[in-house]
Amino acid sequence: MALRATPAGRSRIRCARAPAALVSIAVLLIPSAKALGAPSQAPEVLSLSTCIEAALADGPDNKILQGNLDVATEQFEATEATNAVTVSGSLGYGDSGTFGDPTLYELHSSVTGSGAGNWDGPQAGLTVNGPLTSLSVTANPYMPSIASQSSLFSLLPNLPGEIIPTINDNTGSLSVSVNQTIWNGYPGGTGLAAVKKSLLGLESQKLSTAASRLNLVYKVKQAFYSMLGAQRALDVKETIVKQQRDVYDQIRAIAALKQATEVDLKSAEINARSAVIDYQSAVYDFQIARVRLADLMGYPSGARFLVKEEAPPAMPVGSVEEAIAEGLKRRSDASEIELSRESADIDLDLVRGAQTPTVSVSGGASVLLDWQGQGDNAEVANLGVDLSLPILDGGAAKSKVEANLQQQEVYRLQEAQVERNIAADIEQAYDAVQIQFERLELARLAAEKFGLLFKLKESQVTYGTATNQDLLDASVDNANAQSDLAQAERNAQLGVLDLLNVMGE
Q: How does pLDDT run across 301-335, given as a tens digit for each residue?
C-alpha cells in the first residue's frame, strides 16, 4: 500500500487515531524478514535450484505426473505382451464308454480314424501361440484298448493281402497341429496394429508429461521469484517504517519546540501508522508466497524458510520473431496432434483391411504308436486353407472410413490453429515483458529522484527553507517510489518467466 500525505493528513489508508506512544511501540515491535524465517534458529535459505530439485523429487505435482506416466507404460507393456509369443501346457486324463451297438463304434473309430487325438488315458499338451501362428502338440503316452478281439472286421471275409487293424493294450499317440494366418487385414496382423497404437499413446503421454513437468518448473520459478519479491518488499517496507518513525519523532520534537502545527503532527502520525499497516500487509504477502512455494516442493505448509537472492531471469531472445521460431520448435502441442494423426492412420488401415479377404492355412498330423511292435504304426495327416471375405456390412466400413478422413482434416486444422495460438501467446508475452522493463527503468529513475528529494527536504527543514509538510510529503513520495520499484522488479522477473514458459523452456 502506498502512502500519500497532505496537510489534512492525506493517506491511501485512513486509520483511527492512535496515541503517539502506541505508534512508537508498534514500530519497534515490527519483525524483520529474517525474523519471519524461524522462531528460534537461523532459517533455512533455499536457492532456486534447490527448490526445483525438491519439487521434482518430493512435490505432489510431479508424483502425479510420474504416476500417470507409469500407468501408461504398464498399459503399453500389457498390450505388447498380448502380441508376443506365449507358451502354455496342459495335463489331463480321459475316459470314455460306448452305448448301443459296439460294432458300429469299432467300425467308425477303426476305419475313419476319427478317434485320433481323443484317446482314453493320460494326456499332455503344449501350445505355442504367436501373433499369426499357433502350434499345438498333444501326447497320449499310454492308451487302454478301445477295440475288442471280436472286431466288426472279423465278421467280414478277408480279402487277399488285407490286414485287419487291431489296437493293442500298449499304445500311444502324438498329434501336432499348426495354424498360420497369412493375411488378416493389416501387415503383421491386427495385434501389431494394437501395439503400434498403444506405443503412440505412450509417446503422447511422454510428451504431455514432459510439457507438464516444464510447466511445473515454471510454477516453481514463479513461486520462487514471487516469494523473493515479497521478501524484498518486506525489507523495503521495514525501511519505510523506520523512516516514517524517524520523521514522526522529528516532528514531535519540533512540535515540542512550538515549531510544528497540529496538522503536521497528525500527518506524521498517520504516515507512521500507514507504514505499519503496509508492512503488515507485506508480511501476509510474504507468508502466503512461502506457503505456495512450500506446497510445490512437498514441504509442510507451515515450513519456515527464506530464499536466496538470485539474478533475475534474462531475456532468452533478442526479437519477437526469434522467440516465435524457438517456441514453435520447443512446444510439444503440435507433436501431440501429429501422434494423434498417426494413430488415426492405423485406424484407417484397419478399416480398409477389414474389407479384404482373410487367408489362413492349417495342417496337422497324428501318429498312433504300437509300443509292443506287433503291428505297423498308424498315421493321419491333414492340410487346409481358409478364405473369408465380408460380403455385406450395411455400410459400416464406409462410414468408418469417412469419419476417419474427417478426423484427419480436423487434426490438420488443429495443427494450424495451435501454431497460430503459440505465435500469438509468444508475441503477447514478449510485448508485455518489454513494457515491464520500461516500467522498471521508470520506477528506478523515480526512486532515485524521490530519494534525493527526501534528503534535500531534510536539509532544507534543518535550515528553515522548507516546511514540515514539505518533509512529510517528500518522505511519503520516497516511500511510495521505493515500493513501486520493488513491485516493478518483481513484475519484470515474472514477465520474463512467462515468456520462457510460452516458449516451452
A: 889 999 999 888 888 888 999 999 999 988 888 88
CA atoms within 13 A on the CB side of 447: 18
pLDDT, residue 498, reads 94
254-261, long-range: CB within 8 Å, 24+ apart, which pairs?
Answer: 254/468, 259/468, 260/468, 261/468
Of all helices (H) and strands (E), which one includes residue 426?
A: helix 396-463
**CA-to-CA distance for 9 and 266, rounded, in angstroms?**
6
400 bridge partner residues: none
* DSSP element (H, E) containing 144: none
Cα(290)–Cα(223) distance, integer angstroms? 8
Cell 498330423: give the residue. 365
Closest CA to 190 of 347, 74, 81: 347
Listed in sequence order, the residues at least 6 apart from 42 whose beta carbon sits closer than 8 Å to its beta carbon are none
pTM, 2 dp: 0.75
- Residue 393's SS3 state is coil
Taking alpha carbons only, the member of 363, 377, 376 closest to residue 173 is 377
Per-residue pLDDT at 39 = 54
Name the residue among 426, 437, 432 with its Cα closest to residue 500.
Answer: 426
Residue whose C-alpha cell reads 505382451 in the numeric block: 81
Distance CA 270, CA 7 (A): 11
Neighbours of 97 (CB within 10 A): 6
Query: Which pLDDT tens digit goes with each residue over 379-400?
Result: 888 999 998 888 888 888 889 9
Q: Residue ranges of the chain with pLDDT lower than 50? A: 1-29, 108, 110-117, 146-156, 158-159, 161-168
Element (H, E) at 68: helix 60-82
- Total count of residues recorded for the chain: 505
Terminal Cα-to-Cα distance of the chain (whole angstroms): 34
